[in-house]
Amino acid sequence: MEWTAPAVVLEVRPHGEGGAVVTLLTEEHGRHAGLAKGGSSRAQAGLWLPGNLIEARWIARLADQLGAVSGEMVHPAAALAMEDPLALALLSSACAIAADALPEREPHPRAFRALVSVIAHMAGGAGEVLADYVRWEALVLSELGYGLDLSACAVTGVREGLTHVSPRTGRAVCADAAAPYLDRLLPLPTLLLADDPGDPAGWDAGLRLTGHFLERDAFGARHRPVPEARHRLADRVAALAGDA
User: Which Gene3D superfamilies does this chain map to (predicted)?
Assistant: First the structure.
């Protein structure tokens, strides 16, 4: 059994003497782990950093084995993000969610392509891709069967003026219908309705919205906590929104 494919490094754990168990995300093979010989060595440490885009090669005698993995660097996203705490927090959050929420060896090509796009466009800073990152979290929810319904107001059926989301059903609500229940609803930022770069307040609202359903459904349904890396990103963005 063997395949070669572009991949995002999601996580790495030391294994044995100098080895590492590496978890990758690929378009065709989904979340996939492998044993990298020498993966914990100084020579390979930079390759297996979470967030890096690599060309991966996986080999095993049988399909259900852990297998051996090797790789070549395509884009050193982790190193490039080191100078930007917000970018590093975003990268860490994305990798942690993908590693823990997406089923093993189950292809989710849309989530893979969207994540690669976020990583590839981070060169201009985290602010350039935070809206895309929020949309990626909403896509992950959809891929897992917990998609938000933002197509029309759940109460009136109108498709314009959508401003909030029901935390119970995940359906959008228009401003008029939401008015009496604002304290019970989650704000819906325009960046989830259009290709809008947003601002700190919108990013914060978006993360609060997707975070509610990640916690309740994607992770809560399996009795697992949302990764700490995701909380750290949300805290940074909330601080940005408070300072704006």
Answer: Nucleic acid-binding proteins, Recombination protein O, C-terminal domain
* pLDDT tens for the 244 residues of the chain, in order: 899 999 999 999 998 888 999 999 999 999 999 999 999 898 998 999 999 999 999 999 988 899 999 999 999 999 999 989 999 999 999 999 999 999 999 999 999 999 999 999 998 889 999 999 999 999 999 999 999 999 999 999 999 999 999 999 999 999 999 999 999 999 999 999 999 999 999 999 999 999 999 999 999 999 999 999 999 999 999 999 997 6
Residue 6 token pair: 């572009």
Residue 90's nearest CA partner among 115, 112, 111 is 115
